[in-house]
Structure formats: C-alpha cells, structure tokens
Design brief:
The protein is of the alpha/beta class and about 850 residues long. It is about 55% helix and about 10% strand. It starts with a helix and ends in a 14-residue tail after the last helix.
Length: about 850
C-alpha cells in the first residue's frame, strides 16, 4: 500500500511541476524552454531524491501504477482547481512532495539491503542510459504535441498514456527483466531498447502526419479528424506513438535493484530533459537558410547515448560472468545500429487534421517548439501568420480586426496626458508583425522593443514577414530583446506601455508584476478556453470584434479610457474566481467548425462572472446583456450567414437597450450597438429593429449606423419615404459613405423617384466599400442607363472580376439610341 502511495505522490509531483503559461510576464504567450524543461527535470529529480532518502530498493508495479494514477488524477481532474502558478509555489510544491516521499518510507520488507551495490561506473552508465532514453522519448513527445490542440490537458493525456503503457509493460514483462539471470543487464539494456524503439515511433509519426493516413487510422476506431483535441483522438495518437518504447521501458524498470541504481536512472532522465534546450538552440545571428537541429534528431542522439551508457554499465559489472557481459554488450551494440544506419529527416506535422491546406514559408524547430511562418494561401499568400507548436502567436486573417482592437485598446489605457505627448515607447511581449507595427505607429508609437520565449528566432521570423510584403515597408525603431534584458529595461522605466497580445490556448496564470509607476502593463487573454478560475485582479478591460472574439485585458498601472477614444475597451470589475470544468470534462467537449461547444461555454462562464461583479453598478445592464448573449449561443450551421448564426435572446436586447438609454454611450457601447443593429438587419427582424434600435437612435442623434439600419427596415416595410427622410440628412454628415447613397437610391427607386435614384447612385459608384454585391448592383444599374460614369465603373469592376459574363455582355453592347433615365430595376 505504501508503494502505491509513494507512486501517487510521485505522479502528483510530475503533474504539478509543469511550468504554466504566465509564470512571469515574459512567458505570457509561451513558456521558455529552459523554464519548461527545468521544472520537468526538477520534478523527476525530486522523485529521485525522495525515493533515495526513503531507501526505496525497487520499482514495483504498484509504485508505477500509483504514479500513473497520481498524474492522471491531478492532470485530468484537479489541474483547473489548483496548480502552482509561480516559481515560489512550484518550488514549495517540490519540497512538499519530496518531504511526503521521505515520510512514506517503505516497510522493512520493502527496504531490502543491496547485496551488490553499484560502483560509480555502473551508476554513471545507468544515468547516461536513462538520459538517452529521456532524450529519445522527448523527441517523440514533441511531435505528439503537434497533433494535439496545444492545451495542457492534451499534454496530460499523452503523458498519462505513456505512464499507463509503461505500467502495462512492467506488469506484463517486468518479471522477465527481474529474473536473476538478467541481473545487472536488464535495466541498462532495457533503457537502450526503449530509446531505440523510438525509431518505430518516428515511423508512426511520419505516417500520421499525412492527412489521409491520419483519417484512415482514426476511422478504424470510429473517429474522424473533426474530433481533434478530444479525449479519444488524443488517446489514439499518443498510444500509437508511445506504445513501443513505453512497453520496453516498463519491462526494464522492475529490474532496477537498489536505491542507488534507481537514483542514478531517475537523475539521468532529469539531466536528459535538461539537455534538450541546448541541443535545439539556434545559433545567434543564424539565418533561415542555415541548417539546424530538429526534434527528430533527438531520437538517434538519445539512442546513441543510451546504448553508450548501457555499455558502460555492463562493462562495470564485476559479479557477472564473461558470457553474460558479452551478450549484454552485443545487444547494446545492436541497439545502437538504427542510430548509425537510419537517415533521420525532420518530421513536419502541419495540421493534417485541418480542412484548409497550409503553405509554410519558414519552419524552425526551436527549443520552445516548432515555429512556422505560413499562410492559408489567402490574398495571394501575402497574409502570413506565425505559429508555435501549431498555436497562432500572431493573428490569422480572421482575427486581424480583433487583434487591432486589442493593440489600440491597450494604448487607450495609458494616461491621457502621456498619449497626448506622442513619441511612445512600447515593449511587445509577443511576435511583432507588419500589421501590428503599422497600427502602433499610426497611434503615436515611435519605438517597439519586443521579446518572448522564442526571441532567438525572432530575427529570422521578422525577416520572412517583412520580405513577403508586396511593397517595402520600413520597420519602426526598436530591438529584439531576451526576456532577461527586457525585464531590466522595464524595471528602469524605459517603456510607456508593455503589452502582451492574446494567444489561443490555455488562459495564462496571472502573476504579480513589479512595474514602475510610469509604465502601463496590459496582458490580453482570450476567453475561448476556461478562464473564469483565474485571479484577474480588481479591474479588467473587455474588448471584442462586434460580438465575436471577446478578450480580457489584465491591467497594471492603467488609466480609465477617455470618452472620445474610438477604440477604447470597457473597464469592468473582474469579479471573483469561479469553478472551471475539469480537464477531463473539457476533453470530452467538442470543438470543431460545426460544433464549437468549448468556445460557447467558456465565453458564457466568464460573462456570467463579469455580470455578477457588475451587479448593482452602472454597467449592470451592459454586463448582464453579455451574460445572456453568450449563454444563448449554440451549434451553428455552416450554411448560414454570420448574422443568421448569431442568437439574440430578447432579454439580451432589452438589457442593452436599457444600457444605451441610461446615458451617453461610450465608444465601446457605440461599437456594440452598431454591431447589434447590423445583426438584426442581417436577420431581417424588422419589428425588433423598431423595438430596440429606434429608441436608442432617437435618444442619441445623430447616429448614422442606427439610422441606416432603420432605413433598411423602412424599405423592407414598404415605407420608402420614411427611409428617404432618415437618409437625406446623412448625405451631409457622411458624404463619402457608400451605404448611405446606395440605400438612398434604393429608397428612391421604391418611391418611384428614378431620376433621384440615378443621382444618388452616381455619388455611390466611386466610393470605397467592402460590399461587393451592392457595388455591382449599382454599377450595373448605372451602366444600363448609358451613364458614362456607370460604364466606366463597369469597366473597372470587370478588371477585378474578369469572369463576370453579365458585365462583359453589357459592355459589348452599344448604348441605346434613347438610354433610359431610370436606373431602377423593374
């Protein structure tokens, strides 16, 4: 029973001592490799020291089973409820776990006296063999992460599967390795065999990285790629990649006799993990064209080290006969052959589950993970984004507007006097892109320093991003800094603003920041994954793209936005942390383009927390409306328009109408209600437009966006004169607004005023718009009347859409002898 408990504590340590996102400010978007591998190695070292101090003389199946259970219990059930967040809590947890291992001493029967204690050379060989096995297994684990969804729960599943397979190997084959005839040989040879078996795992990774092979493998078990990141998917991927080395490693561990041998093997494994950042490190100043190490190369390196260590351990055995030692040496040498004979190539796992093909421009296997610069082939391939282990660390095209709002919103949280002076200095904790640089530059930023865990790779990433621009664009002043150097500059007050952009994935931990009073720090986080359990401080900033992609900004030394800041976020009380779903429950929750249950639930939970915190205050109605809105979203049809897919319950509309009628709206509320009006128009909910939009438009005139929505409702209601009455004043307020002139022409056509419609659409035809359908309609209507400007606009439009047969036919026909003066369709 005590062996099971010791294993349970060891498993808890292995799960708890994983450095989380946000362990400090500069590891908000990604954890540095040295931090990540350092704490994972520290967990194994703590287990090694604890078992040695407790005089653990063997590794029975019960102990291995307890390790798997302890890791799974915390990682899959309790990780969201409690996990150490900062360096001090992590160190405290390590010390507490070490003390528990020592207290839970084995019984006298378990504390067998070592009959043949190892000499130093054998301990060194065992440590080297274990280090090699850890290196090779980590080479596979880095590829397994690329198949998953990039969340800590996915990592928990893959590690749990590895531990479970290891336990199964010990149960099924451990008795063979523990046989007296294999004494002293089974453990080093088994470690080398586990490392060599990783070549089989590499072959599995290579096959599964092809979309057809991955789909075929999943179909054998009744699954498909739409279940990416869910429980069954993660288990199957992990099992396929880990089964061979895990079974061999599990079979070897019961052969470890004596606490010194166990200590040597575990310390060796910890040291092996600590070598990974150095082996994959980029040379300073290296370019993307230079060769670099890949994660796949960890397998041959680890296999050679493991085989070499096994040889040293076997040669040091003084109590075994020559035949046994030579047989062991022969097996160890044979296990090194794959590393010498197999040509290992980098294995690129580029989202084989995705329906959209990716076009990588740059691929770099860094210590922090696989970094890529790629596109979906959109806009001629010029919109590039950066990923780290398949998580986008710069915005994809669909999230560009939301990212821009976060960048501008962070600037709006600076003191007004400081913003008015301009010449701002900013530290970006994340990836700088040309678009981010443009947005910050236009907002008055003159210098942008940047840092992140992958700062060593940033020069080659920026080179790829800027070289891909269709026209040359100069960078702003600023440097790429290591996190340590960035921390020194921030502490000396060099920056007006430090901003950490949001990155998809786990909500980072919010640790305390020591920033000088002159520096505002804004850390953005998406709420598409559970974040309601995080302590976010007193106030947060909320921003969203209309009603989509909401984000929260965690604030330090921030000021309330001024009323005239166009992009200002909404500052709310953060409220108290709430319970989050267990990682296991979240793994069973679907996230796919057709059924994104995770996003809906996560947003609803955070909105409920914010609404509770706002209750009784001036923002109660606004926050309660968000709670109702996000709580009402559900499964969407991919065949509907974005407006049709948006659920708008009446209680949400009533709350937001009340909030807007209570007083002058701030910029956030204006953006929100304009989006609401657009959605209601897209749904063609005429009665609700009059019920909820019209009172607000009357209360706060002039409001062009609302008046245009009401004009559309008037046209739909066969009240064209009412629409004309609304739109005509807008022609002087927004004379360059295409939609105003287009709608005015529509209303005039409906009212039988064709000549006036012709004049309105002449104003509209050369104005900028993203509404291609309406632009084409106006162009065709004018061209059919023989209007010279209309025909010229049709020629310009044909250059953009050369396959438009109706435009071609119209332009090839001569003008009628008496062209009609009425453009209105009949």
């Amino acid at each position: 029973m005590r062996a099971l408990l010791r294993g349970f504590v060891a498993g808890l340590l292995l799960s708890c001592l994983r450095a989380p996102l946000g362990i400090d400010l500069f590891e908000w978007p990604a954890v540095g490799a040295r931090t990540s591998y350092g704490w994972r190695g520290a967990a194994i070292a703590a287990v090694a020291i604890g078992l040695w101090a407790a005089r653990q003389a063997s590794l029975p199946v019960r102990l291995l089973l307890g390790t798997a259970v302890g890791f799974g219990l915390h990682g899959l059930l309790f990780a969201n409820a409690w996990s150490p967040a900062g360096r001090v809590p992590l160190a405290t947890t390590a010390m507490l776990g070490l003390a528990l291992l020592i207290v839970l001493r084995p019984s006298r029967a378990e504390r067998a006296v070592e009959e043949n204690p190892p000499n130093f050379l054998e301990m060194l060989g065992l440590a080297a063999a274990a280090a090699g096995a850890a290196l090779a297994l980590e080479g596979i684990a880095r590829h397994v992460r690329l198949f998953e969804a990039g969340l800590s729960q996915d990592d928990s599943i893959s590690t749990f599967v590895l531990l479970a397979a290891l336990t199964a190997g010990a149960l099924a084959f451990g008795w063979i390795a523990a046989a007296d005839k294999l004494r002293g040989l089974a453990l080093p040879v088994g470690l080398a065999a586990a490392a060599s078996a990783c070549f089989v795992s590499l072959r599995v990774v290579s096959r599964l990285s092809v979309d057809r092979a991955l789909s075929g493998y999943l179909r054998r078990f009744g699954l498909d790629t739409s279940l990416h990141g869910m429980l069954g998917y993660d288990v199957l991927i992990s099992a396929a990649c880990f089964i061979a080395p895990a079974l061999l490693l599990g079979a070897a561990l019961p052969a470890g006799r004596g606490r010194a041998r166990i200590f040597s093997a575990l310390i060796g494994a910890a040291l092996g993990l600590g070598l990974v950042p150095g082996l994959l490190a980029l040379e300073p100043g290296s370019s993307s064209s230079e060769l670099q190490a890949s994660s796949a190369e960890l397998v041959p390196w680890g296999s050679l080290v493991a085989a070499g260590g096994a040889l040293v351990a076997i040669l040091s055995l003084g109590d075994r006969g020559a035949l046994a030692r030579w047989m062991g040496i022969a097996v160890a040498l044979a296990l090194a052959l794959p590393a010498l004979l197999v040509n290992v190539k980098p294995q690129l796992v580029l989202s084989p589950w995705s329906k959209r093909p990716t076009f990588p421009l740059l691929v770099s296997d860094t210590p922090e993970g696989l970094l890529t610069v790629e596109s979906f082939g959109l806009v001629g391939g010029t919109w590039l984004f950066v990923t780290l282990d398949r998580r986008a660390v710069s915005p994809v095209l669909e999230g560009a507007v939301a990212d821009a709002l976060r960048m501008r919103g962070a600037l709006d949280l600076l003191p007004a006097a400081r913003r008015a002076r301009g010449n701002l200095s900013v530290l970006l904790v994340g990836q700088l892109t040309p678009e981010r640089a443009r947005i910050l530059s236009e907002a008055g930023v003159s210098r942008i320093d940047r840092t992140a865990a992958w700062s060593e790779a940033m020069p080659r990433i920026e080179e790829a991003l800027w070289n891909a621009l269709p026209e040359k664009r100069e960078k702003l002043q600023g440097e790429i800094l290591t996190p340590a150097r960035a921390g020194e500059r921030m502490a000396s007050g060099d920056y007006d603003l430090v901003v950490a952009p949001a990155v998809p994935g786990d909500a980072p931990r919010v640790t305390e920041i020591r920033a000088p009073a002159v520096t505002t720090v804004v850390r953005w986080l998406e709420i598409d994954q559970p974040a309601q359990q995080r302590d976010l401080g007193d106030l947060v900033a909320l921003t969203c793209e209309g009603l989509d992609r909401p984000s929260l900004g965690v604030l330090t030394n921030a000021s309330a936005p001024a009323g005239d800041d166009t992009f200002a976020p909404l500052v709310l009380h953060a409220g108290s942390p709430r319970a989050a779903p267990t990682p296991l429950a979240w793994l069973r929750t679907r996230k796919s383009p057709r059924a994104d249950e995770r996003t809906d639930r996560a947003r609803a939970a955070m909105a409920a927390r914010l609404a509770e915190a706002a209750r009784g205050g001036p923002l109660e109605d606004l926050a309660a409306g968000f709670e109702s809105f996000y709580g009402a979203q559900g499964i969407r049809s991919e065949f509907e328009s974005p407006e049709e897919r948006t659920e708008l319950p009446d209680v949400c509309l009533e709350r937001w109408r009340s909030a807007l009628l209570a007083g002058p709206p701030d910029p956030f509320a204006r953006r929100l209600f304009e989006t609401l009006a657009r959605v209601l128009t897209g749904k063609r909910w005429i009665e609700k437009i009059y019920a909820y939009v019209q009172p607000v438009a009357v209360k706060h005139p002039p409001w062009p966006a609302l008046e245009k929505a009401l004009a559309r409702a008037d046209i739909e209601s066969l009240e064209p004169q009412a629409a004309i009455h609304r739109l005509e004043p807008l022609t002087s307020i927004e004379p360059k607004d295409f939609e105003v002139w287009y709608l005015l022409g529509e209303a005039q056509c409906a009212a039988g005023e064709g000549a006036k419609a012709l004049e309105s659409w002449r104003h509209a035809v050369w104005l900028q718009t993203s509404d291609r359908v309406s632009r084409r309609k106006v162009t065709l209507a004018l061209a059919r009347t023989g209007d010279a400007e209309g025909r010229e606009a049709a020629r310009q439009l044909l250059l953009e859409v050369p396959d438009d047969e109706e435009l071609k036919s119209l332009l090839t026909q001569p003008n009628p002898a008496e062209p009609p003066s009425d453009p209105c369709p009949r």
